[in-house]
Design goal:
single chain; about 400 residues; alpha+beta; five-stranded antiparallel β-sheet; about 25% helix
Length: about 400
């Protein structure tokens, strides 16, 4: 694979959403608005946080900003919110330049990693706080607070104070508070990272349900790949202040635009291969088509292969399928390996394998058949005949 430039597939145009919440007086957000980031740069001393970031977000779309610590995703979110100022570039909302507009005039709702609830206010009062600042009548504040608490799954908790609520419930109140003012854009800054695994799973499903119901344009910052891939319409992968790729989760996983995306999203094997004539790469004696432009024939490369991208069979299976072979090498192009560790991951089990030449790799199997592959088991692997990505051979 030779492509190294950032890739951003065009943002989808969401279909109009019609729900009961769209009725006058209900809790629906306004129609989602487009957001465009144009060449945003931001430095802190010698550290470059954003380096010409460009990103288009469609009305009603949920885009996750994903990347390692220090990649610039939180800085980008703070600039959208108006809590920080870009050194250069533009921020457009609904076609209007809001680069210099103060945070309190941007009409944005934000949910933080810490719940930031007022401890001396009950849930309803916390939700209604922004409405009170906007001089909304007390009756309307109460009505909307109760509607939103029901929307986020907290009916009957209006009179509870933060210390009487669990972490997940407090984050739901924070979400309701952000939605109460009917913002044009909703920003989520790692809102689930402080919660336990089961609550995170439940709440991320609830956030996605609510976001779809309201049709609100949403930007979600996370370092959790599973969160990003399961919740977002598109995932924007960032590195060193730049956009590596922005695409739908399935496309991002199957067709990463750069080696960084390929190895950052999901699990990837880097396996030694050699480019051959005809746009193929030889891997373990098996020739696979190259996805993208092929380097010159004879080039030593690393082949990027997902753990599910190969078939695994026990030595007995391979021998029975290819009568007359010694088991050292199957006629189907498989290569003998030994299981070092088998890790149960629920529906799949990950096998950590070693070839006779010492190459280590991972392969995923359905757990129902993985019981045959315990530590020390001799087996055979064969890559599936799908196009693969290749990158320059890594040192060592």
């Amino acid at each position: 694979m030779t492509t190294t430039t950032a890739s951003a597939s065009p943002p989808p145009t969401p279909a109009p959403k019609t729900t009961a919440l769209d009725e006058p007086g209900a809790t629906a957000a306004r129609e989602g608005v487009p957001v465009q980031l144009r060449g945003l740069t931001r430095s802190f001393g010698d550290a470059v946080a954003l380096d010409g970031l460009d990103l288009d977000i469609a009305p009603g779309e949920l885009v996750a900003l994903l990347g390692p610590s220090g990649c610039g995703k939180t800085t980008a979110l703070r600039i959208i919110a108006g809590f920080d100022t870009a050194d250069a570039g533009q921020l457009l909302m609904d076609g209007q330049d809001v680069t210099g507009v103060p945070a309190n005039r941007r009409d944005i709702g934000m949910v933080f990693q810490s719940y930031s609830l007022f401890p001396n206010m009950n849930a309803a009062e916390n939700v209604a706080f922004g409405l009170r600042v906007r001089k909304v009548s007390a009756a309307e504040r109460r009505e909307r607070a109760h509607e939103l608490l029901e929307l986020v799954g907290l009916p009957g908790r209006a009179e509870h104070y933060p210390h009487q609520l669990s972490g997940g419930q407090q984050q739901r109140v924070a979400l309701a508070r952000a939605l109460a003012v009917r913002p044009r854009v909703l920003l989520l800054d790692e809102p689930l990272s402080a919660l336990d695994a089961k609550v995170r799973l439940t709440l991320r499903e609830e956030i996605r349900r609510i976001q779809l119901e309201l049709g609100i344009t949403t930007v979600f910052v996370t370092h959790d790949q599973e969160e990003a891939l399961s919740m977002a319409d598109r995932v924007a992968v960032m590195k060193d202040g730049r956009l590596e790729q922005c695409a739908a989760p399935a496309e991002l996983y199957a067709r990463p635009a750069t080696p960084f995306v390929a190895e950052f999203v999901g699990t990837m094997n880097r396996l030694p291969g050699t480019v051959r004539d005809g746009g193929v790469v030889e891997l373990f004696g098996h020739r696979l088509p190259i996805d993208g432009d092929a380097p010159a024939s004879g080039t030593e490369v690393d082949v990027l292969l997902r753990p599910e991208g190969m078939a695994v069979r026990t030595a007995e299976d391979a021998a029975s399928a290819t009568p007359g072979t010694s088991g050292e090498r199957a006629d189907d192009g498989g290569i003998p390996v030994t299981v070092r560790v088998a890790t149960f991951l629920g529906a799949v089990t990950r096998l950590h394998l070693t070839t006779e030449s010492g190459v280590q790799l991972k392969a995923d199997l359905p757990s129902w058949e993985a019981h045959r592959f315990t530590a020390g088991t001799r087996c055979s692997i064969r890559p599936h005949d799908n196009p693969v990505l290749v990158v320059a051979r890594s040192a060592g």
